[in-house]
Amino acid sequence: MSKYPTLAEKCFVVVSLFFSTSALIPVLLDSQESSATASDPYSPILFLGIYTITGLLIAQQWQSFVQVARKNIWIWLIVAIAIASVYWTVASDITSRRSILLLGTSLFGTYMAMRFTLREQLHLLAIALGLVAVLSFIFAIALPFYGVMSIQEGGVHEGAWRGVMTHKNVFGRVMVLSNLVFLFVALGKPISPTSKQSWQWLAWLCYGLSIALIILSTSKTAMISTVVLTVVLFLYRTWRLSYSQVIPLTIVIVLVLGNAAILVFDNINAISGALGRDLTLTGRTDIWAVMLDKLAERPLIGYGFNAFWRDWNSPVTAEVWRILAWECPYGHNGFMDLLVELGIPALVIFMISYITAILRGVRLLQNTRNVEGIWHLMFLTFILIYNISESSLLATNSIFWIVYVSTVFSLAAKSQPSPVYQFVTAISEDERLELEGARDWDLRN
In the predicted model, what is the mean pLDDT of the chain? Predict the structure, then answer.
């Protein structure tokens, strides 16, 4: 295999990331006569092919892969628990297939961390998400049956754009990630000096398109997340200031947030009404209460990977649906779904991997000066925000799990410099200096 990523490899990664957003295929299979989304027999076959190619690419640089993969055991423990859950799952056929696909998804994320620099990863993500955004705009304008919601969920979301996704909230979530990626590409440095101008104006254009699509999706979670993440980016950048600057800025921020919190709590009923929500988070707390009751029956092992939310043929799901009095598709909280599927130990392991990544992200932020040094923390914040009221955590064939895995291993590799950086990928001069700075910081501490 070439020392540096080839054009064929980059095209393979872009195509894989595009389909990992759940774009195009599921929405094209959506039935005109039914409000439910049709089953998708094609995506599992597609991703099986993607992971087979990934395995072949990894095999050609096995030593490099091992050096990267061994830097974070927690990811592999979670995957191992998911695979092992086939022995106690309440849906063995589903768990056996999905757990293998989860392994493939994790391997693909590790391959990205092994083979590409952070700047290259961001550009590849930008291309894939840019394709999603442009196609979504075209679908909504030229093919509104596919691109705009109408009969789905009884028409309650009629007129909301869903682009090349099956639902406006899924579309909104992907566009929030797109918005974040294009912001970093626009503010960051190009891969090569000759690409600076073309990438910058195009990145800003796609950044604006992502914001427009978020608004047109009418996803309130996506809108709020975009605002919060923009504010958080500003706050993270202040962590690079000197102590004399940080202290007064922190006082100002505390005062502003404190007053904002008082206003929110004083007007909580009016705000929740304006957002179309109630104080139970649109029934989410009721769902979580039922899930905790079921978890009490199997707290250590859960019900198996992807086995809790199935259909009326599943006794567990049927019982939950009867209690809730509606067919809830998932737990509307990524941590709760992980908990009921794989038990308390799996959630603890995930939290260890997440907190470890946060700490490494903070250290990298403080020892770098370019905008890419904040990316890992921003994505980890995005994952936390979105999994409070949605569920996009431990998922097969998912761009969110792929990027999480690549983030965890990229951070682990940067905090523990090794010879793998001599041949994994082309590292620009400023990135080399950043890595050396991180290494020197580690030696001093």
Answer: 82
> Is residue 2 in some structural domain?
no
Integer angstrom CA distances of residue 190 from 31, 61, 370, 376, 432 = 43, 27, 12, 18, 15
In one-letter notation, the amino acid at residue 100 is I
Q: Which of 128, 141, 133, 142 is nearest to 164 (CA)?
A: 133
Model confidence pLDDT, tens digit, residues 371-410: 888 999 999 999 998 888 788 888 899 999 999 999 999 9
Number of domains composing the chain: 2
Rounded to the nearest 10 degrees, how much is the dihedral formed by the CA atoms of 163, 380, 371, 176? 20
The label of the residue with tokens 């992907």 reads 174
Contact 237, 374 (CB under 8 A): yes
36 vs 152: CA distance, rounded Å: 7
DSSP secondary structure code for residue 332 in this structure: S
- Alpha helix ranges (H) inside 296-333: 315-324
Q: How far is the CA of 392 from the CAs of 161, 342, 398, 399, in angstroms?
A: 20, 15, 8, 9
**Looking at the structure, do residues 410 and 277 belong to the same domain, yes or no?**
no
Look at the block and give the residue holding tokens 């442009």.
134
Higher pLDDT, 146 or 198: 146
Q: Let me know whether 382 and 405 are in one domain.
A: yes
The distance of Cα 302 from the centroid of its chain, to the nearest Å, equals: 23
- 140 in the same domain as 39: yes
Whole-prediction pTM = 0.85
8 Å CB contact between 164 and 132: yes
Rounded-to-integer distance, Cα 198 and Cα 387, Å: 35
Distance of CA 192 to the CA centre of its chain: 27
Strand, helix or coil at 32? coil
The model's pLDDT over 415-433, given as tens digits with 9 standing for 90+, comes to 654 444 333 434 444 544 4
Residue 365 and residue 303 in one domain? yes
Could you tell me which residues are beta bridge partners of residue 161?
148
The Cα–Cα gap between 302 and 305 comes to: 8
Question: Are residues 163 and 268 located together in one domain of the fold?
Answer: no
Strand pairing partners for 148? 161
**Going along 125-209, which residue ranges are E strands?**
none
H-helix or E-strand containing 356?
A: helix 334-366
DSSP 37: P
For residue 366, what are its two tokens?
């403080």
Rounded CA separation 210/201 (Å): 14
Assess whether 134 and 259 both reside in one domain: no
Residue closest to 354 by CA, chosen among 331, 339, 335, 372: 335
89 and 343 Cβ atoms separated by less than 8 Å: no
Q: How many helices (H) and strands (E) does the chain have?
A: 19, 0
362: containing domain:
7-240+282-444
